[in-house]
# Entry
Amino acid sequence: MTAPAPADWLRWVGLSAAGGVAAGLAWWLAAPGGAFYGQGKDYTIWVARDLVLAGLMVLGGLTAAGLLIRSAARHGSGATVRLVAVLAGGLLGSVLAWRTGVFAGDLFQTPPADMAAPSIVFSLRSPSVLLLWPLATSVAVFLYTFLAYTFVPPPRASR
# Structure
């Protein structure tokens, strides 16, 4: 069994980081108080805004897990290194999604003059959402591995 090349795990981290930027833009476009609807200063939409990012983080984690499982079926060796790279990339992607969404909000929205802090217009109020991407990835990979080993037929006894 050989370890994967360094470019292999860097590719997984980079793919997750790129997915984080895309998720951040999607968060800003889809969330209340973002690009299309809702007022950012309305505190009643803050939970919905965080839940949109949470859904995107879970979707990113499940997508990463699906790609990882597919890759592990094709290339048996180095699955642990790829899993660690995907988890680290998922955490990086989550942070990039958060900062990209907030940056887009700061760039394209004008906060009211009487607002205490301009970051209230579009921001994340529950930072624990950022852990959902690596958590969804690890749970999906664990469940797949558990089910794969649970339903492996027992070896036949030779005659």
Notes: The mean pLDDT is 85. The CA atoms of residues 80 and 99 lie 29 Å apart.
